[in-house]
């Protein structure tokens, strides 16, 4: 679209996570005829199939409306390579692994204190490209943070937070997406968040839902956890959650199913 004199000196870059807030931001920016020069999306390779379809649908609309495609950023190797195969390079890390009798490759499962997945597969990729655009093209960076999460906004003169300015909450952002025909394949009807399906920080009830609604991904998660425990042992690197392996969760969920009255599903749809 044609830029106004007010913003002609800037390059306009939009971050897209694929979730409800960043999706609502992109949809509204197109509707309001705001300038968009590029849309950046970091693909972890561990997204729900429904999210992949959602991104493809957004890309189709973006191309029809603005003649550009979403720019997808990917780590050259991906999640499972980093989890199992990336070589340890820091001396202290190598010494610690040797002392613990653990392999010298792989990060193991990410956790609350070491969220290497978010850092390496999302934040680093987006930040590197955005920083380049800010430096080389005087870019403004549009970020989809809702008004009820305004505390997450950073004080950067080249960042823009339109949802906060427009006082659009997370709940409203979801409804904006729904009203424009973007329903995320029903993900938000099942899960609280539509992030990576293999995230160890998910609640137990979310994992129960994963087993029910995405059994193929649950099977893959069991295989990954079995491989991690065989490789790293039952400690933080090798066990999916602090108190639970995926196999123990499978046993728990199976017992719960068996205990239900015959013919009745879980009351929570889990």
Verbal overview:
With 270 residues, this protein is of the alpha/beta class. It has 2 domains: 11-199, 3-Layer(aba) Sandwich (Rossmann fold); 202-270, no CATH class. Helix content is 47%, strand content 7%. It contains 11 helices and 5 strands. The chain has helices at residues 20-31, 49-66, 79-84, 91-100, 116-137, 162-165, 170-179, 187-190, 204-213, 215-232, 246-259, and strands at 11-16, 38-42, 71-73, 139-142, 159-160. The protein has a 5-stranded parallel beta sheet with strand order 3-2-1-4-5, sandwiched between helices. Helix 1 packs across helix 7 (170-179). The radius of gyration is 21 Å and the shape is globular. The model has no long low-confidence stretch (mean pLDDT 93).
Task: Explain the layout of strands and helices.
Layout: E1 11-16, H1 20-31, E2 38-42, H2 49-66, E3 71-73, H3 79-84, H4 91-100, H5 116-137, E4 139-142, E5 159-160, H6 162-165, H7 170-179, H8 187-190, H9 204-213, H10 215-232, H11 246-259
Parallel strand pairs: 1-2, 1-4, 2-3, 4-5
Helix pairs in contact: 1-7, 9-10
